[in-house]
UniProtKB/TrEMBL annotation:
Component of the proteasome, a multicatalytic proteinase complex which is characterized by its ability to cleave peptides with Arg, Phe, Tyr, Leu, and Glu adjacent to the leaving group at neutral or slightly basic pH. The proteasome has an ATP-dependent proteolytic activity. Non-catalytic component of the proteasome, a multicatalytic proteinase complex which is characterized by its ability to cleave peptides with Arg, Phe, Tyr, Leu, and Glu adjacent to the leaving group at neutral or slightly basic pH. The proteasome has an ATP-dependent proteolytic activity. The gene is LOC106760802. The keyword Cytoplasm applies. GO terms for cellular component: cytoplasm; nucleus; proteasome core complex, beta-subunit complex. Belongs to the peptidase T1B family. Coiled coil: none annotated. It comes from Vigna radiata var. radiata (Mung bean). This is Proteasome subunit beta.
């Protein structure tokens, strides 16, 4: 069994019209045993930038703390928030730095850049970036997420439709993966607001 599958996870980010959504499941398990049903995989860096970390939960928490530290240093020095593209490069550099003893994490980064253009990206454990114009997925449920997102995604969705699409894609995908599930956590981010929703899913 891969160490990436030890805790189970499902993560997806999707772009809309001047907005984006990022969603994850809420299960924390040790292989097939469920430990918690309210695990937070998605974290806010600032109002227009979010990161989701799938993979080994302990590494995800360590990596998140390092990223927050580095972002705060940037804010102090530059007196502004980091752009999503810059942040993606920072995450990539931190992961590549540890390539001989990597963090067992697959990050998903989503943010609004210049002129509120949505930016999404994912990378592997040593920081090789994969950029996309529509959606990115990570975690043990990624195979079924690819299929669900492929069939449901439409370009230029408004925030309400984007929320509906990403929620349906997430819930239908985690039903096909025994290592993730127990509801979902969805953030829909527009230039003016951040909407956070907890989804109820199958509890088995």
């Amino acid at each position: 069994m891969s160490i990436f599958e030890y805790n189970g996870s499902a993560l997806v980010a999707m772009v809309g019209k001047n907005c984006f959504a990022i969603a994850s499941d809420r299960r924390l398990g040790v292989q097939l045993q469920t430990i918690a049903t309210d695990f937070q995989r998605i974290s806010k860096i600032h109002d227009k930038l979010f990161i989701g970390l799938s993979g080994l939960a302990t590494d995800a928490q360590t990596l998140y703390q390092r990223l927050v530290f580095r972002h705060k240093l940037y804010q102090l020095r530059e007196e502004r928030d980091m752009k999503p593209e810059t942040f993606a490069s920072l995450v990539s550099a931190i992961l590549y730095e540890k390539r001989f003893g990597p963090y067992f994490c697959q990050p998903v980064i989503a943010g609004l850049g210049d002129e509120d253009k949505p930016f999404i990206c994912t990378m592997d454990a040593i920081g090789a970036k994969e950029l996309a114009k529509d959606f990115v997925v990570a975690g043990t449920a990624s195979e079924s997420l690819y299929g669900a997102c492929e069939s449901m995604f439409k370009p230029d969705m408004e925030p309400e439709e984007l929320f509906e699409t990403i929620s349906q894609a997430l819930l239908s995908s985690v039903d096909r993966d025994c290592l993730s599930g127990w509801g979902g956590h969805v953030y829909v981010v527009t230039p003016t607001e951040v909407k956070e929703t907890i989804l109820k899913g199958r509890m088995d």
